[in-house]
Specification:
Number of domains: 2
Largest sheet: 5 strands, parallel
Radius of gyration: 27 Å
Order of helices and strands: EHHEEEHEHEEHEEHHH
Low-confidence stretches: none
Shape: elongated
């Protein structure tokens, strides 16, 4: 079982993510656990104050390193102590898959002007969910919780479903359709209604490549492309030089037409 521990000034912000929907049901079934730790419980003053003004002046308040250290010391040993920070490398699907193999993850969720810089010596890694400014680390931590928890065995209904999701294969996901078959002049692609599973799989892969090419071509540099993918991308107008830059494998060799043997039928006299 993987335990997520969140050190935060606002545990009530994370409580809904930990108690509802799929994650809530997974907790009830003992597939994972979520521990919400109030940083104010580790202050050393009667007012439960955990921050102070920054040395050198400036706006805002900074969370004290000694408060963070006491909170971390109260927890069982962790595989990773993660600081949600804009200075960290991007959180990706590959990182989510790595973290899903751990047993205890601790997250430091900052507020105000963040943690004292010396807190960085207490963590094992920093993570960022994007190049934008937020008011705290709780929303970012919730993103990591959902992305990692869904990869744990038994959490989602179909253990194979996450393998075809966006980014799991290195590509964006293919488009999905359900009822009604016709809606405001837009129909469901006929291939999805024909019952040919091989044709459906081929169509979905082609659509995933098309979507990625149109919307996130940067992903194709690291995608696990096949020779058939190369053939599809060529048909979509991608230049051979670009495919080489993406380290795409050569397309499959064209099939040679089989030669028909001429069969001579001798006429036998009656």
């Amino acid at each position: 079982m993987l335990t997520f521990s969140f050190l935060t000034l606002f545990p009530e912000l994370l409580a809904p993510f930990a108690g509802e929907a799929i994650i809530g049901r997974a907790r009830q079934r003992g597939l994972l656990d979520v521990n919400l730790v109030q940083l104010r419980d580790f202050s050393d003053n009667r007012h439960h104050k955990v921050d102070d003004t920054p040395y050198g002046g400036g706006a805002g308040m900074v969370i004290r390193v000694d408060v963070a250290e006491r909170a971390l010391s109260s927890l069982p040993p962790a595989d990773e102590v993660i600081l949600l920070s804009p200075a960290g490398p991007p959180f990706t699907q590959a990182v989510a898959e790595e973290l899903a193999g751990k047993s205890h993850l601790v997250f430091l969720c900052g507020r105000y002007e963040g943690f004292d810089a010396r807190t960085e010596g207490l963590v094992t890694r920093e993570l960022s969910i994007g190049d934008f400014v937020m008011m705290g680390g709780e929303a970012a931590a919730a993103c990591v919780l959902e992305a990692v928890a869904r990869l744990l065995p038994g959490v989602i209904g179909d253990p194979e479903s996450h393998r075809t999701d966006s980014f799991s294969s290195g590509l964006l996901d293919y488009p999905e359709y359900t009822r009604p078959p016709e809606w405001r002049g837009q129909g469901v692609p006929e291939v999805l209604r024909g019952g040919n599973h091989g044709a459906v799989a081929l169509w979905r892969r082609e659509q995933a490549l098309r979507r990625t090419l149109e919307r996130r071509p940067d992903l194709l540099m690291a995608a696990r492309l096949t020779p058939q993918d190369t053939l599809t991308l060529l048909a979509l107008g991608v230049a051979a030089q670009q495919l080489q830059a993406w380290n795409a494998p050569p397309p499959p060799a064209p099939r040679r037409a089989r030669r028909r043997k001429n069969i001579v039928v001798s006429e036998q006299p009656e």
